[in-house]
Design a protein that fits this description.
Chains A, B: Keywords: DNA-binding. The structure is a homodimer of 116-residue chains. Chain A is mainly alpha-helical and 116 residues long. The first copy, chain A, has six helices and no strands. The two termini of chain A are 23 Å apart.
């Protein structure tokens, strides 16, 4: 995953565990596309200070994922649901009921994921 | 959900954000079924101190869920996957391909959940 996409997702999952200031800086940088200097002006701190804050915040987010792996679990689940969708589409087209067994297998895999 | 089930699930989701001591006490109480007094003896602290620690820990876990709602999201997703499983079983039994539309609808609902 590209860094921007990963940070956006991690922020989506764990952002509410960050401090208000960390949340603001993440949003300015990743959502509003402000530069480090622009964010620095906002808070009257140096570009370098913003950089350090951002790095620390990203490390916090990665730390949450390292501990909880909830994003990874969601991603895997999401992938399997896409697989079910594709099989359903194929079943619709072909009427091949043998595909139901594959769908059941994937549902079982999802249930196994939940239990980990 | 019953309190025991809820605490076990919350601990499963967010336990790794707790301190080592909090984790130990949660496991002794909820997994090993030790009494407050028994846990107190383990740490040479009073029954009341264990109670307070446990309450605080439960509050921390509820706090994580209040902020992140990830357990709630997982639960909803899980419910929908059970629904898909039931429809697949029915489809298998009846061969009624109209059920595919319902399955696709639920897949869409799951995708909408992910985006929230």
């Amino acid at each position: 995953m590209k860094k921007l996409a990963r940070m956006t997702m991690l922020y989506d999952f764990y952002g509410r565990l960050l401090t208000k200031r960390q949340q603001e800086i993440m949003e300015m940088f990743y959502e509003d596309d402000l530069s480090l200097s622009e964010i620095g002006e906002e808070y009257s701190i140096s570009r370098q200070a913003v950089y350090d804050l951002l790095k620390r915040t990203e490390k916090n987010l990665e730390g949450y994922e390292e501990k909880l792996s909830l994003m990874d679990k969601f991603e895997k689940q999401q992938g399997k649901i896409v697989d079910i969708g594709a099989l359903v589409t194929e079943l619709r087209k072909t009427g091949n009921l043998d595909l139901l067994e594959q769908i059941e297998f994937i549902i079982q895999e999802i249930n196994d994921l939940e239990r980990k």
